[in-house]
From TrEMBL, chain A:
Residues 253-264 have a biased composition (Polar residues). GO terms for molecular function: calcium ion binding; calcium-dependent phospholipid binding. It holds the Pfam family YbjQ_2. The keyword Transport applies. The gene is c2cd5. This is C2 domain-containing protein 5. PROSITE patterns: C2. One of its GO terms (biological process) is protein localization to plasma membrane. Residues 282-294, 353-368 have a biased composition (Low complexity). InterPro entries: C2_C2CD5 (IPR037785), C2_dom (IPR000008), C2CD5 (IPR038983), C2CD5_C (IPR057815), C2CD5_YbjQ-like_dom (IPR056430), C2CD5_YbjQ-rel_dom (IPR056431). The lineage of its organism: Eukaryota, Metazoa, Chordata, Craniata, Vertebrata.
TrEMBL record, chain B:
This is Acidic fibroblast growth factor intracellular-binding protein B-like isoform X2. It comes from the Eukaryota. One of its GO terms (molecular function) is fibroblast growth factor binding. InterPro entries: FIBP. One of its GO terms (cellular component) is nucleus. It comes from Cyprinus carpio. One of its GO terms (biological process) is platelet aggregation.
Length: 1206, 384
């Protein structure tokens, strides 16, 4: 019973008038936790009551503390009749359970009522006294930190990444029928809200338990979803990545750094990496370690975890020369490393013999009939950039590939390694089943360097690789919900893997007694609780499928993994997708250092005293200079799979950066663009939109119909994506998210991704239109005009996105070009001889270009879609990843927004008509956004997250959440230029350029009010422990030395250099100046994991809120738009208020998970349900940080220690 | 095929000033879109009419949501529903503070809510033309029904008329019951800048006493003339004017004072006193003006007029006719005698002062309080 929860009700304000006679209210408050309720006195006749209550104390289990929210109900006292409820406040006390998060909840929180919305505010104080529970068998998991952020949170370092955690809880939905019959269901809606709060608390606790079992202390990339299954209940499920995080000092630790060779090694690459979005971050292009050196290290690995601790820097330094030695051999050998993980299909054998398009089906591989029997239909589709259908180079007729998609039953579920294995070289072939010696196992741990094995180490390497894979594979799911990684963690990216499954939701009349998963919730509905095992099994299937897909791609892990569902009546589509990847356990070991390192250099996290360190880095990079020819930004593009065993007919070429390894011609991923990636030009949002009609059907028939439609849908989405990608002259997609929504009479597909031109990948060919009847002259003319239009568009887009593949650079860097080739007319033949070069006549018959057959109705449609996509207006960029490559100098102006549109369709539309409408809907929505945000130009809409739904027959709902961030126009040009150069000189000139800013900054900051010292700092400072102080005394010393030097131009300039947005900073400072001293509680919200121009100094806990709003006077509230507008604004207000109460000033990684809107205009009623989540943080403006550190030297020193936390 | 629902909500509230003004002016969404298209915003931003319509509707919705808050501006200071972009705030604070002489208000509040304050300011702004029409009328449903006539007469949209009327009514309702100085109350409860608060005080005051302002003879007077007079009355003739500590309202005239005014009748009923007064005034005026003869001839008439107004003010009905009486009994005679405002000033000064010299006249305090206001009102009203 180790917890005491204390709550105090201070006051209320702006309460509604509850007594018409007096126009006043007699308010009192009920505070409820678990089964205990306290009441305040009635404060008579006031709209601004001052209760100032005593401390209400609840003595409870920490288990309950995690599960239950604190419920505060404000009521109007009525002597004669029942007391009227004014509204409620749910307070999630989870942030208080973690010592590193918030310590108190204090502030004005909106009082919310499902019918009336926000009705005034209440001021409360909540604290928790937690006793330590060392009981091994405890059911609670207090202290496990949760983050929505899908990267290692900014002020932490990952000591260890344990892997995938998942859990789900199921319960009866108290009000599932509201969809049809909107009752006056305030009570049931409140019950729902309460239930979901409870369920998510329970879910979080259980996930936490799993994390503790794994030995972790945090969940990163926590993704919680609700499935409103209607009759069969309510499923709350969550996935995440378990990690062991360690708080890093706000002043990056420098003590260990100088003698650590790894970061300095990184540094030498940094000038090259300059063009990457986050500025100077860079890393190894590929692992430098040879296997043998690894073996000498004392590693130990426990199978379920990837350990990356314990390696001593000195080892690494000794490895460096060795690694270089190995390098030359890479090119030929590495890609040839055989993979153990080919799908075990007979077709596989064929794949090896020749590369004809038909081979690609091997991926679609085995079907298990058992699976089919489990569910009405299971469709597994394996998507990767070079899906056969999309690869027209190899297969000119896309339609030819359709058959392969017509095998819904073909989902591969094999987890066993393929029986067949053909090795190309003399490398050893190993199976997973091989029992390995302990020595080898040790080696495995350090391995993970994927296909980068040296020539001489070839066989061993292969073996090691095998072993690493095994180690990872032995874990249930080697999945990571992260989308951004510590540099070097991600070695190779295979492509997108996804799986879908159509299920029939069936109510299971099976009293779930003894079902531990929902035992807590049985009070709600003791008679039925759906067995979560069913749902578990469903997801398990899907995950197995994903896992086998990843294996087919030669990858042992899946990153950027996510799961989703779409439910219509009793049919449910489960979808999962991720990016197959090869991860480095070695880099996981390096991870913490690198993360920290990156943090220190990241413009957004730049901290004043980090400068010395950066200087050091620069120095080392100078010394190491150009020893490494291999560009660091291309390593992840290198194929992880066997060149001759390609699971699909991809066109492989040698990497355009390093010229050593093979890369695919196109790369699709679900992750964010790695910071170190070399990108040419800017990126843009690319969307494929599709609508398909479907016959109305019931039950199994319906499921079957959907299953058979799905492959076509996916295929077409990919064709569209590929077309649009080529039209923009780009060659890679990041952040790919494909949503399939199911309605009664149609299926909706929306694929969004950010297209970029990866320097390492070949330039995409053009799009070639081919007619079926070339004899017809008018027809040919028609075709040629279209062709011209397309070519013009491509040229225009290249200009717009500044895609000028660096031919010159190529010559400079690519000294050992393996084979001569012409960039733009690359002939990528499917006969594997990569030496074959041929000059092609561009006018006809080129295999290089993407060919669209005009007589194909689909193609006509595609072309149409291509040409109707309107370009973004001047000054705007858009992407669905965290940030836009090529834009660096963000200002502090950000605007997060949510926009929702519902469109009513006419009945009896054809597929084409539907497509056009849907496409126009998305386009118009984007146009509206650009118009709305015109005052922010130049700006970029980041993290554009579209969610489509079919709330009703003939209705399409599109919801968008994104953030608009403005940037400085002048700088990018300059920066772009600079980024082109990969010399150290550049960095130096940059220094000089920024001197003025520093001077200016200093002048300004000196006049800055010291009182503006952020609240967070002092708060963090209070966490100081003596131990910390001792442990980081070196930093302190350095810091002091540093602060003394601070005034000098030199130090600040080096600091500035680390920030790519000096202009933005100084500007933000200027605009800040006038109000920085005020107590204005502005809470910023952003779907990104960072805030430009600011440093996150503390994470206060996860925000996960669920609201239902209903009305029976829809017209009076301004119709559906007015109703939803108010509701969303209220949700924002409540999120902001809760964050402010936790002491935070921003929400990062904000997302709106659910926005279910239902209306019944005839009855003048509507309902909406919204689920939002994010991480509450305290951030400090860099400018403020500086001024604080300048003026209050010692205080900052202390703070820095505090920042390190406990 | 139609867009059923279309919303955009930002974490910080985006308000387009131009659209806001159109909304305040009572334009329909479609009219506003037309105006915007003519304004050329489409070319500027590569937008289509559709986009413009969507944006305008969205803005209108935002304003409607704001409107609820604008009705209770005191809540604005700590409302949570709208977050105002801080950079914009910073930019606007100084300008606004300067423009509105917002000195008395807590600066923090201003800083918090400048943007909304400006919205507020604009929301509560009114057309002089419109207010002239309803000034002194009862702020009742009946009057509201007649607003369409006002709308037609003034050319202001009915919507805008209604908003302005509702503003008057709202302010009236809140202030009516409050103690303390009227202007200050309005300023605090509606966060309005000083001048606007004074105007509202005048409107409330006029509505409360139902002063007649619509007669043809009064048409030449502007709202600002009346507002000035109202200010004079509020500052001198209400209870609050003499005693700030009083528990009474500023809205009502001081009953005791009105009662005392009856005593002034002696100035015209007592023949001796009247003559004496006339002599004193004439002595003082002689040689100082070209229209002395007219003044002398008219003295008794004018004096009777003014004193009679005073004596009648105890009746609420006669209070209503205060301004018409002033015009009929004093201003018109003076004007027909071609008195300049300098002449009037001179006359009234001596008329007031001479009364104090009269032996048997005891009501000096009341006389000063009365004539002070009368004089400044007449002087203000004495124009074409």
């Amino acid at each position: 019973m180790p917890g005491k929860l204390k709550a105090k009700i201070v006051a209320g304000r702006h309460l509604p008038v509850m007594d018409r006679a007096s126009d006043l209210t007699d308010a009192f408050v009920e505070v409820k936790f678990g089964n205990t309720t306290f009441k305040t006195d009635v404060y008579p006749k006031s709209l601004n009551p001052q209760w100032n209550s005593e401390w209400f104390k609840f003595e409870v289990d920490d288990e309950d503390l995690q599960d239950e929210p604190l419920q505060i109900t404000v009521l109007d006292h009525d002597t004669y009749s029942a007391n009227d409820a004014i509204g409620k406040v749910y307070i999630d006390i989870d942030p208080l359970l973690c010592s590193e998060a918030a310590t108190v909840i204090s502030g004005w929180l909106p009082i919310y009522d499902t019918i009336h919305g926000i009705r005034g505010e209440i001021n409360v104080l909540v604290k928790v006294d937690l006793f330590n529970d060392l009981n091994r068998f405890r059911q609670s998991s207090c202290g496990v930190k949760f983050f929505c952020t899908t990267s290692i949170p900014r002020c932490y370092r990952a000591v260890m990444v344990h892997g995938f955690v998942e859990e789900l809880v199921v319960n009866e939905d108290p009000e599932y029928q509201w969809i049809d019959r909107i009752r006056t269901p305030r009570a049931s809606n409140e019950a729902r809200q309460r239930l979901i709060f409870l369920m998510s608390g329970e879910l979080q606790r259980k996930i936490g338990l799993k994390v503790l079992e794994m030995g972790g202390n945090a969940v990163v990339g926590y993704l919680q979803c609700f499935d409103l299954e209607g009759e069969s209940g309510l499923v709350v499920r969550a996935i995440g990545t378990a990690c062991t995080l360690e708080k890093i000092s706000t002043f990056p630790a420098t003590a260990t750094h100088p003698n650590n060779s790894s970061p300095s090694k990184d540094m030498k690459d940094s000038p090259q990496a300059a063009p990457s979005t986050l500025g100077c971050r860079s890393t190894h292009s590929s692992p430098v370690h040879s296997a043998s050196s690894r073996l000498s290290q004392g590693f130990s690995v426990s199978v379920p975890t990837l350990l990356f601790a314990g390696m001593k820097p000195r080892h690494r330094s000794s490895e460096v020369p060795r690694a270089r030695q190995c390098r030359p051999g890479f090119g030929e050998e590495a890609p040839g490393v055989p993979l153990s993980s080919g799908p075990p299909t007979p077709l596989r054998a064929q794949t090896f013999s020749s590369f004809s398009p038909s081979k690609s089906y091997s991926r679609q591989s085995s079907s298990s009939d058992t699976e089919l029997s489990l569910t009405p239909k299971t469709v597994g589709i394996f998507l990767c950039p070079s899906t056969p259908a999309l690869e027209s180079e190899s297969s000119p007729l896309p339609s030819a590939h359709l058959p392969c998609h017509l095998r819904p039953g073909m989902a591969s579920r094999s987890t066993t390694p393929p029986p067949l294995h053909i090795s190309q070289s003399d490398t050893a072939m190993l199976r997973k089943s091989v029992s390995f010696s302990e020595e080898l196992l040790l080696a495995v741990s350090g391995m993970g360097s994927g296909g980068s094995a040296g020539k001489e180490a070839g066989p061993l390497k292969a073996l090691l690789r095998q072993q690493t894979q095994s180690a990872l594979e032995q874990r249930e799911y080697p999945f990571f919900t992260l989308t951004a990684f510590p540099p070097g963690f991600l070695l190779h990216v295979g492509g997108v893997v996804s799986a879908r499954s159509v299920k029939l939701l069936d109510r299971i009349h099976n009293p779930a007694l003894g079902n531990t998963r929902s035992y807590k919730l049985l009070d709600w509905n003791s008679f039925t609780a759906d067995e979560p095992e069913t749902r578990d099994a469903w997801w398990e299937e899907i995950r197995q499928e994903i896992k086998s897909h990843a294996k087919a791609l030669g990858c042992h892990a899946v990153v950027g993994y996510s799961e989703s569902t779409s439910i219509c009546e009793e049919v449910c589509i489960l979808s999962a997708s991720g990016t197959a990847a090869v991860l480095s356990s070695r880099f996981m070991q390096d991870g913490p250092l690198d993360t920290e390192h990156r943090l220190s250099r990241q413009p957004l996290c730049v901290f004043s005293t980090g400068s010395e360190r950066v200087e050091g880095d620069m120095g080392s990079s100078a010394s190491l200079g150009f020893e490494e020819v291999v560009s660091p930004g291309c390593g992840f593009c290198h194929i992880p799979y066997d060149e001759l065993n390609i699971p699909f007919p991809a066109q492989l070429t040698y990497c355009y950066c390093c010229r050593r390894y093979k890369v695919p011609d196109v790369l699709f991923t679900t992750i964010d663009l790695p910071t170190e990636a070399n990108v040419t030009g800017k990126g843009c949002l690319i969307q494929a939109r599709l609508c398909r009609t479907k016959k109305k059907a019931q039950g199994e028939g319906n499921a079957t119909a959907i299953s058979s439609l799905l492959p076509f849908l996916e295929y077409e989405l990919h064709t569209q994506l590929m077309n649009k990608l080529k039209l923009r002259g780009m060659n890679a997609l990041f952040g790919l998210r494909i949503q399939i929504s199911v309605g009664e009479t149609m299926l909706l597909g929306l694929a969004s991704a950010t297209g970029v031109y990866l320097t390492a990948l070949p330039s995409p060919g053009g799009i070639q239109i081919a007619g079926k009847t070339p004899s017809d002259i008018t027809y040919e003319q028609h075709i040629s005009t279209m062709q011209k239009k397309i070519n013009d568009t491509i040229d225009k887009n290249k200009e717009l996105y500044e895609i000028n593949p660096p031919e010159v650079v190529e010559e400079i860097i690519g000294s050992p070009i393996p084979e001569p080739r012409q960039r733009s007319r690359l002939f990528r033949s499917h006969s594997e001889s990569s030496d074959e070069v041929s000059e092609l006549d561009l006018s006809h018959g080129k295999k290089d270009a993407f060919v669209l057959e005009i007589d194909d109705t689909d193609a006509v449609e595609d072309i149409h879609a291509l040409l109707t996509d309107s370009p973004t207006p001047a000054g705007f960029y858009s992407c669905n990843t965290e940030i836009m490559p090529g834009i660096q100098n963000w200002t502090s102006a950000i605007q997060m927004f949510t926009s929702v549109r519902v469109f009513r369709l006419n009945a009896n539309l054809t597929n084409q008509g539907l497509n056009k409408i849907f496409s126009d809907l998305c386009e118009n929505l984007l146009k509206s956004l650009y118009f709305k945000l015109r005052s922010m130009v130049p700006c970029c809409l980041c993290h554009l997250n579209f969610t489509v739904a079919i709330p009703e027959d003939e209705l399409i709902q599109v919801a968008v959440t994104a953030v608009a961030m403005s940037f400085d126009k002048e700088q990018p040009l300059e920066n772009g230029k600079q980024s082109g150069e990969k010399t150290l000189i550049k960095a130096i000139t940059e220094n000089d350029e920024q001197l003025q800013f520093n001077l200016e900054l200093n002048a300004e900051t000196s006049s800055h009010n010291p009182l503006s010292s952020p609240k967070g700092l002092s708060e963090v400072g209070s966490h100081l422990s003596a131990r910390d102080r001792c442990s980081s005394w070196i930093e302190q010393l350095k810091l002091k030395a540093h602060t003394i030097r601070r005034g000098s131009v030199k130090t600040t300039s080096s600091l500035e250099k680390a920030s790519p947005l000096p202009e933005g900073r100084s500007r933000s400072l200027r605009s800040n100046r006038s109000y920085s001293g005020s107590s204005v509680a502005v809470v910023k919200m952003t779907p990104l994991s960072f805030i430009p121009g600011a440093k996150i100094i503390k994470y206060l806990g996860i925000i996960n809120m669920f609201f239902i709003r209903e009305t029976s006077s829809l017209r009076e509230e301004g119709g559906v738009s007015g109703f939803l507008h108010t509701f969303i604004a209220e949700v924002f207000a409540m999120v902001r208020a809760h964050v402010a109460a936790l002491g935070g000033n921003a929400v990062v990684s904000y997302s709106m998970k659910e926005c279910v809107f239902m209306e019944n205009p005839n009855k003048n009623q509507a309902q909406c349900l919204i689920n939002v989540s994010g991480d509450a943080v305290i951030f400090v403006r860099e400018s403020e940080l500086e001024s604080t550190s300048v003026q209050t030297q010692s205080a900052t020193t202390h703070t820095s220690n505090g920042g390190e936390g406990t | 095929m139609s867009v059923e629902l279309d919303v955009f909500v930002g974490n910080t509230t985006i308000m387009d000033k131009e659209v806001y003004q159109l909304w305040l002016n009572g334009y329909t969404v479609n009219d506003a879109v037309k105006v915007r298209i003519e304004g050329g915003v489409m070319e500027e931003c590569e937008a289509s009419a559709e986009v413009l319509l969507s944006d305008t509707m969205d803005q209108y919705r935002t304003f409607q949501m704001c409107e609820r808050l604008l009705h209770h501006p005191a809540k604005l200071a700590n409302q949570l529903l709208f977050q105002i972009p801080p950079d914009r705030q910073a930019m606007l604070i100084e300008r606004y503070a300067l423009a509105c002489q917002f000195n008395s208000l807590d600066f923090v509040i201003i800083q918090f809510q400048t943007f909304i304050c400006i919205s507020l300011f604009r929301y509560y702004a009114f057309d002089d033309l419109f207010v002239r029409e309803v000034l002194g009328k009862k702020l009742s449903k009946g009057t509201k029904k007649d607003l369409d006539d006002v709308s037609i007469k003034t050319g202001i949209t009915l919507k805008s008329c209604r908003r302005q009327f509702d503003n008057f009514k709202r302010v009236f309702k809140v202030v009516e019951e409050l103690k303390g100085p009227l202007v200050e109350n309005i300023r605090q409860h509606f966060l309005l800048p000083d001048q606007l608060a004074r105007d509202y005080a005048a409107i409330v005051f006029f509505a409360n006493h139902r002063f007649e302002t619509g007669k043809k003879k009064l048409q030449y007077l502007t709202f600002q003339d009346f507002a000035f007079c109202a200010g004079q009355l509020i500052n001198n003739w209400t209870v609050g004017a003499v005693d700030n500590m009083m528990e009474d309202m500023d809205v009502d005239l001081d009953k005791e004072f009105l009662q005392d005014l009856k005593d002034l009748k002696i100035l015209i009923t007592d023949k001796d006193l009247l003559d004496q007064h006339k002599n004193l005034v004439c002595t003082a005026l002689r040689g100082k003006t070209n229209v002395f003869n007219e003044m002398e001839a008219n003295f008794k008439n004018l004096s009777r007029g003014l004193v009679n107004i005073a004596a009648k003010l105890i009746n609420a009905k006669d209070v209503r006719d205060f301004f018409i009486d002033l015009v009929e009994k004093f201003i018109e005679p003076c004007r027909s005698d071609k008195l300049t405002s300098i002449d009037v000033n001179l006359y009234l000064t001596h008329y007031t002062n001479s009364a104090h010299i009269l032996d048997t006249f005891k009501h000096h305090a009341v006389w000063t309080r009365y004539m002070g206001v009368i004089k400044s009102c007449i002087l203000r009203m004495y124009h074409d």
